[in-house]
């Protein structure tokens, strides 16, 4: 029973972190969104194959946010130089 509670807690945390990451991304906070999505991705990975779809979805979001964050960093650097 305790094992199921731990999985439920991890799943809840992963879903929450993923949602926070999406909201932060939509608000333009790509760097912080990336951190939250990375945390969610890690939790999904530890839960195993039963959550593979959620893990893949989270990873795709993370890649998109990371790409946007990298573009933003490059444009800021170009303005400085």
UniProtKB/TrEMBL annotation:
It comes from the Eukaryota. This is TPR-like protein. It comes from Neolentinus lepideus HHB14362 ss-1. The lineage of its organism: Eukaryota, Fungi, Dikarya, Basidiomycota, Agaricomycotina.
């Amino acid at each position: 029973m305790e094992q199921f509670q731990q999985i439920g807690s991890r799943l809840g945390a992963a879903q929450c972190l993923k949602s926070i990451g999406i909201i932060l991304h939509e608000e333009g906070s790509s760097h912080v969104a990336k951190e939250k999505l990375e945390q969610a991705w890690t939790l999904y990975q530890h839960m195993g194959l039963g959550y593979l779809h959620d893990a893949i979805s989270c990873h795709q979001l993370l890649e998109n946010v990371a790409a946007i964050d990298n573009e933003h960093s490059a444009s800021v650097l170009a303005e400085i130089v």
